[in-house]
# Entry
Amino acid sequence: MLKLKNKAISNVVAIIILMAVTIAVSVAVAAWTGALTFSYMETESLQIQGCIFQSEEVQGVNMTVHNDGTTDTTINRFKIGNAANPYEITDVHIAKGDTVNVFLPFNWSSGIIYDIFLITASGKQFPYRVLAP
# Structure
C-alpha cells in the first residue's frame, strides 16, 4: 500500500491568513468609501459679523461676511424679510476662510428691524437680523 504524506497548513495558520486578508480588504474598502464621502461633504457656511447702514450716495447696508465653510462660495442675491423676489447683486466670491464686505443697495428707514438673507449661487440662505439706526 502506498502511503501519501499530506502536507497542509494547520487550522490556526489558515484562520490567521483568512483574518489578515479580510482586514486588508475591509481597510481598502473603508478608504475608498471615505474618499468618496469627503468629496460630497463640502459645506457652505457664512458668518455675518456685522453691518453698517449707509445713507450717502447710494443707500444700503455694508455687511462683513466670513466664510467658515469647507468650500468657496459666491453670494449673488439677497432679500429683505419675506420678499418673494430677491435682489440681484454683482457676484461676490468668498474663498474658504476669507472675510469680505458685501454692499446691499436698498432703501431703509431708521428704527426698523430688518431680516436680511444673503443667498449663495447654490441657493442656500444665511439670515441676519438688524435694527436700522
User: Anything to note?
Assistant: The chain has one helix and seven strands. The mean pLDDT is 86. The domain at 46-131 is CATH 2.60.40 (Immunoglobulin-like).
